[in-house]
Design goal:
By secondary structure, this protein is mainly alpha-helical. Helix content is about 50%, strand content about 5%. It starts with a helix and ends in a 19-residue tail after the last strand.
Protein backbone atom coordinates (compact mmCIF):
# COMPACT_ATOMS: atom_id res chain seq x y z
CA UNK A 1 0.00 0.00 0.00
CA UNK A 2 2.83 2.41 0.84
CA UNK A 3 4.49 1.57 -2.49
CA UNK A 4 1.31 2.55 -4.34
CA UNK A 5 1.18 5.93 -2.58
CA UNK A 6 4.88 6.60 -3.30
CA UNK A 7 4.45 5.59 -6.95
CA UNK A 8 1.46 7.90 -7.32
CA UNK A 9 3.41 10.78 -5.73
CA UNK A 10 6.35 10.22 -8.09
CA UNK A 11 4.05 10.20 -11.11
CA UNK A 12 2.45 13.48 -9.95
CA UNK A 13 5.83 15.14 -9.48
CA UNK A 14 6.97 14.02 -12.93
CA UNK A 15 3.80 15.43 -14.50
CA UNK A 16 4.19 18.75 -12.66
CA UNK A 17 7.85 19.07 -13.72
CA UNK A 18 6.98 18.19 -17.32
CA UNK A 19 4.22 20.83 -17.43
CA UNK A 20 6.48 23.48 -15.87
CA UNK A 21 9.25 22.84 -18.41
CA UNK A 22 6.69 22.92 -21.24
CA UNK A 23 5.40 26.32 -20.08
CA UNK A 24 8.96 27.63 -19.67
CA UNK A 25 9.76 26.67 -23.27
CA UNK A 26 6.60 28.42 -24.48
CA UNK A 27 7.50 31.58 -22.52
CA UNK A 28 11.04 31.55 -23.90
CA UNK A 29 9.73 31.26 -27.46
CA UNK A 30 7.31 34.14 -26.87
CA UNK A 31 10.09 36.29 -25.38
CA UNK A 32 12.27 35.64 -28.39
CA UNK A 33 9.42 36.36 -30.80
CA UNK A 34 8.00 39.50 -29.16
CA UNK A 35 10.92 40.78 -27.07
CA UNK A 36 14.01 42.72 -28.02
CA UNK A 37 17.60 41.68 -27.32
CA UNK A 38 19.66 43.63 -24.80
CA UNK A 39 22.76 45.14 -26.45
CA UNK A 40 24.91 44.38 -23.38
CA UNK A 41 24.04 40.82 -22.37
CA UNK A 42 21.99 39.55 -25.34
CA UNK A 43 19.05 38.29 -23.27
CA UNK A 44 15.55 39.14 -24.45
CA UNK A 45 13.59 41.77 -22.53
CA UNK A 46 10.12 43.32 -22.83
CA UNK A 47 9.82 45.69 -25.81
CA UNK A 48 8.79 48.60 -23.57
CA UNK A 49 11.57 48.05 -21.02
CA UNK A 50 14.01 50.87 -20.33
CA UNK A 51 16.44 48.83 -18.19
CA UNK A 52 17.54 45.22 -18.73
CA UNK A 53 16.47 43.01 -15.83
CA UNK A 54 19.50 40.73 -16.33
CA UNK A 55 22.42 43.17 -16.43
CA UNK A 56 20.69 46.47 -15.48
CA UNK A 57 21.93 48.20 -18.62
CA UNK A 58 19.96 51.13 -20.03
CA UNK A 59 18.21 50.13 -23.25
CA UNK A 60 17.82 52.44 -26.23
CA UNK A 61 14.33 53.92 -26.47
CA UNK A 62 12.32 54.15 -29.65
CA UNK A 63 11.54 57.62 -31.02
CA UNK A 64 7.83 57.07 -31.75
Amino acid sequence: MVFLIVAAAVVCVVIIVFKARQRARARAAARQKYGKPCPSCGNYVHPAAAICKHCYARLPTSKT
